[in-house]
Amino acid sequence: METRRKKRFIAGAVCPACGKLDNMMLYMEHGVEKVTCVACGDTQVQTPEEVERVTREAEEVIGVFRP
């Protein structure tokens, strides 16, 4: 029995493989975020480790609070 995935379309997104607009679908599968183009089937995956690494690289510390 297959479980149903909640899918959301990303408005204004362009597929990097085929270049079509508004065909990118975002969903979670086994705790991993995936984006798939419904026109050509191209799939991109972003694991939580990649998300954390990208977030930390762009993070800037303004100050440290010490009570």
Description:
The protein is α+β, with helices and mostly antiparallel strands and 67 residues long. It has one domain (8-57). The chain contains 1 helix and 4 strands. It has one helix at residues 48-58, and strands at residues 8-9, 24-29, 32-37, 43-46. Strands 1-2-3-4 form a 4-stranded antiparallel β-sheet. The termini are far apart. It holds the Pfam family DUF2387. It comes from Aeromonas jandaei. This is YheV family putative metal-binding protein.
Strand content: 25-35%
Strand order of the largest sheet: 1-2-3-4
- Overall average pLDDT: 79
Any low-confidence stretches, pLDDT <50, length ≥5? none
Task: Count all strands and give the number.
Answer: 4
List the helices and strands in order.
EEEEH
Question: What about the largest sheet?
Answer: 4 strands, antiparallel
Structural class: alpha+beta
First-residue to last-residue Cα separation:
54 Å
Protein name: YheV family putative metal-binding protein
InterPro entries: YheV
